Amino acid sequence: MEKISVFLDDYRQPPEGYVLAETIDECIQLLYNFDIEHLSLDHDLLNKTRNGFMLVQMMVKEKLFANRITIHSANSVGGKAMYKLLKQAQFESILSHATIVSLRPLPLHSIPSKVLQHYIDVR
């Protein structure tokens, strides 16, 4: 199965080499159909009820994960909730302990070069 990296966001542009998913439905389809090396997730999306937290709930329920997961949401409450749910899934051995889960909020307008290194290091 082909390995890809996915960037879920409806506002920011993805780093070079990433597939952009603008909705959780697009992201779920990618999780079902590809081996995801790095999954970077936003919380706030255009559809307020189908946000990044709902995606993480679906991922845990369906056991759909990536080798590395980053929460990049600027929404501190929503981002932390997503991070905590993934860490709880690791604690309960639903998500592999080998999966790297990180919380790295991104500004809305551009990705600073130092932060971009986090995405480059993934390859």
TrEMBL record:
Q: Which part of the chain is the Cyclic-phosphate processing Receiver domain?
A: 4-88
Under InterPro entries, the record lists: cREC_REC
Listed Pfam families: cREC_REC
Determine the domain of life of the protein's source. Bacteria
Name of the protein in question: Cyclic-phosphate processing Receiver domain-containing protein
Organism, by scientific name, is Peribacillus deserti
